[in-house]
Amino acid sequence: MVKENCHPGIFKTHVMKKRLCLLLLPLLVFLQVEGQEQLSYQQLADRYFITFQYQRAMLIYERLCRGSKVKAANLYKLGYSYEITGAYDKALGAYARCMQQDSTADTLQMRTGNLLKQLQKYTQAKTAYTTYAAKYGTSPLLQNRLAGCDSAQAWLHSHAIVTLQPASSLNTSYADWGAVVHDSVIVFTTEFIRGEALDNKTQVLRWPYPRTGLPYSKIFAARSDGKNIGLPGTRETIVSDIGTQVNNSPFHEGAAVFSSRGDTVYFTITHATRRNALTESPPRHYVYHRVKEQQLELQYSVKSPEGHWQKAVSCPFNNVKAYSVGQPALSKDGSILYFVSDMPGGYGQTDIWYAEKDSAGNWGQPKNCGSAINTSGNEMFPVVNDSNRLHFSSDGWPGMGGLDLFAVTGAKQQWQQPKNLLPPFNSSFDDFYFFRFDTLKGFLSSNRQNGVGSDDIYVFQLPVEVAPPKVLNLLTTVYRAKDSSVVQDAIVALTNLQRRAMWRQRTDTRGQTMFILERAIDYELVGSFATLQPDSAQFSTNIIMSGDTVYQSLYLREHIVPEKTYKVGDHFVLEGLYYDFDKYNIRPDAAIVLNKLQQLLLKYPTMKIELSSHTDSRGSKAYNERLSAQRAASARAYLIKAGISAERIISKGYGESRLVNGCSDGVPCTEAQHQANRRTEVTVLSNQ
């Protein structure tokens, strides 16, 4: 049997190919073999495969996969070796043969779809994704990849007016990426180790990185005698070592990010921790390997008064034995450090996290940036280009294929909708590390076709008319309607009506909250407090013509509860009981609604109810039934914890089986019509 996840450490390497910054990639370095036994072709191929020497493994698997009697597992490993080394067409052929040999290998339809997207075969990619979904069900990640197939075909015909060209003075036949400008010097990461440029104390391994056969990456600085500091058209580029205190690891290092004052540099290194691994080949015969598993670690160095980088220091939240931390990005004021990690508590394979610096200059505990950015896929390479604008790469949001570049407005855990940068910034391959060195110019890195190396640095220039638009602030004040006094600790929920994304804050001592808005978006604002009636307002940023702040006021009135008699069969909708996308936990604003239901049940102590949850028709029926059942059960558990007897409440999830309108599968409907179907209802079962 062949399964897509039979090599979990290896499968996570596909996104990054030859780059240092592949989080989750165990870099295995063969150190010791017990015994001197003669290995078979199978044993030798498997040894190369588990030590990530795919070029060597591929040659032997090709031999093993000749003829008609071929192991499905060997076809899978051959296809994976092709995929990692960039031979996508050959990988597709090997995967197809694998699925023909073993019907349980059809989980490879997901990988097949990913490869077809990278080859811009979007119609075939949709077929592969749809085949996978028909057997294994859908998911937000799969839905985004399907959506990307449709979007990419339209995007290919609507390029922005952008000048994009290779940074010819920096690129080599190796991997060159992660370019930033610091103190009029380009700092970048490269596998091309220029011996004459290295300080004689810089550590460089005498053997290559076994996965690629190329040198380990180091950080270099590029200066030019021309006006454009090493950009295309310069006469000569002088490359030098950034310094031995930064290039101080025997393994990979890069990329670098600098504080605004230029006195601190943050960068990633690979850090080796030893463990043992056993592989069985053939049965009852073990080959013992001692290996090194390399995790990523985030370090920083501070300049001395003389202007030299001092010994690098490890960031306090590193834990190289448990997870990787790397790819730093620093806010303009230096108070927030963003980074990428696979630490527990994330949403996907790699997430963007952040830590805040306290008044004493110490970094706090890491916090996840949340589901507004992070998906169940990979989010990587964050770069802060403005005070409230982050660029990053993702294969989880709808995109062209591989990693796509995205821009998002916000900070910490409050973010607007990420926006795909579209062609020519994005291609069907991996596009990453978007850095602007002035308003309209910058760098990005990509392994797109027609480059000179495995990764190349590109320079872009925007026309003035497509410069990033200015964002808006929303200042909301919540008042008590009775006497116009401000309400502290009220919950203010802001909803983007185009995509139903919601953000929440509590009011401060002045009864105020501050959100960040996008232009040309319709919003809904709801304020609530436990003992008061909620108030709401809708507004649009289409009509905001000047200024950078939108002001809104909400007035909460006293509760007026009319007397009502409830009889068996009565039912009503719990208005305002919403859940986060694909979640069933009770949010603070939902708790307010359930508290009202609790008060009703306390008032009528003999009443028994059915608490039912309903979804719209989007998604599979099985998925919707499961999610609605979880949501109803979660609401029931909340009421029981609040003191209502369990025997008085029955929870039931109906999924999409009881739509209140005609918005069934395949019927085009507005978001408001879909929202009407997403509801929680109460039905009175008895009231004696």
Automatic annotation (TrEMBL):
Q: Where in the cell is it found?
A: Cell outer membrane
The UniProt entry's GO CC annotations, sorted and at most eight, read: cell outer membrane
Q: Which Pfam families match?
A: OmpA (PF00691), PD40 (PF07676)
Looking up PROSITE patterns in the UniProt record yields: OMPA_2, TPR
The UniProt keyword set, sorted, is: Cell outer membrane, Membrane, TPR repeat
Signal sequence coordinates: none
Q: Which domain of life is it from?
A: Bacteria
Q: Where are the TPR repeats?
A: 72-105
> Does the UniProt entry include the keyword ATP-binding?
no
Q: Per the database record, which ranges form the OmpA-like domain?
A: 566-688
Which InterPro entries does the entry link to?
Answer: Bact_OuterMem_StrucFunc (IPR050330), OMP_bac (IPR006664), OmpA-like (IPR006665), OmpA-like_sf (IPR036737), TPR-like_helical_dom_sf (IPR011990), TPR_rpt (IPR019734), WD40 (IPR011659)
Give the primary localization class: membrane
Q: Does the keyword rRNA-binding apply?
A: no
Q: What is this protein called?
A: OmpA-like domain-containing protein
